[in-house]
Design goal:
Helices cover about 5% and strands about 50% of the residues. By secondary structure, it is mostly beta strands. Strands 1, 2, 3, 4, 5, 6, 7, 8, 9, 10 and 11 form an 11-stranded mixed sheet that branches. The two termini are about 20 Å apart.
Length: about 230
């Protein structure tokens, strides 16, 4: 059980279509691929590609358009030259004409991407020298563009997050669910996540009935924006 979802606002360009090779797919189905960058709050970024499933009659949006994307993600952890990959589940272009001078003034000012992950702890809990921050390494995987891809992330959080969960350690190989914003793109490969919420030992506490199984991706992302689905749809 593992998952990695990235969502936020992305500037896209270079849209092109690639035929879909999925078994059973209709003849006119395709992927539209866009170049983009995944931005961190520190100001740096990772070059990436967004893939949108559709049909050949779908319009390719204009270069430099900004879209809101929720997508299954691969974030490279080893090679600094490797590109990230997002397979969009939601792809919503913002209104406006990117060729107009006023376009940038109506766009959201927040550029850093958010992350929702479910994965296994791969390193021991570590306290930083500043006395305020702690970190663990987490391995998440998801099926992105028909292949299972694994990402290794550094989850960083402040001390004041710990008492909320009465946590003193994170056992290796335990399952954690976390939510945060991409804080930094490491020059040698990998990303640091500024974690704002974390649930530890998810598999154990779920089995004991002491905690609900983590919500689906759609439920969680909608809840972040204060949207509750009617019971007939959830």
């Amino acid at each position: 059980m593992s998952s990695l979802i990235v969502f936020g606002f992305f500037c896209v360009s270079g849209g092109c279509r690639v035929p879909s090779l999925k078994p059973g797919s209709v003849s006119n189905s395709c992927y539209t691929c866009y170049d983009t960058a995944i931005h961190a709050s520190a100001g740096n970024s990772l070059q990436a590609e967004i893939i949108v499933e559709g049909v050949f009659s779908d319009a390719v949006i204009a270069d430099h358009s900004v879209v809101f994307v929720v997508g299954k993600a691969y974030l490279p952890s080893a090679a600094a030259c490797e590109r990230g990959l997002l397979e969009a589940m939601y792809f919503v272009p913002l209104p406006g004409d990117p060729s107009c001078d006023v376009y940038e003034f109506i766009l959201p000012q927040w550029t850093a991407a958010f992350v929702l992950g479910l994965g296994r702890v791969t390193s021991s809990f570590a306290s930083h020298d500043d006395g305020r921050h702690n970190s663990i390494s987490v391995s998440c995987s998801d099926y992105v563009w028909d292949g299972k891809m694994s990402s290794k992330l550094i989850c960083s959080f402040e001390d004041d997050l710990l008492p909320s969960y009465n946590i003193s350690s994170f056992p290796r190989n335990s399952l954690v669910q976390f939510f945060g914003v991409i804080k930094n793109v490491v020059s040698t490969g990998g990303m640091t996540i500024d974690v704002k919420n974390i649930v530890t030992d998810v598999d154990r506490v779920s089995a004991l009935g002491k905690h609900k199984v983590p919500p689906t991706t759609d439920e969680y992302v909608l809840s972040v924006f204060g949207v509750t689905l009617p019971s007939s749809l959830s």
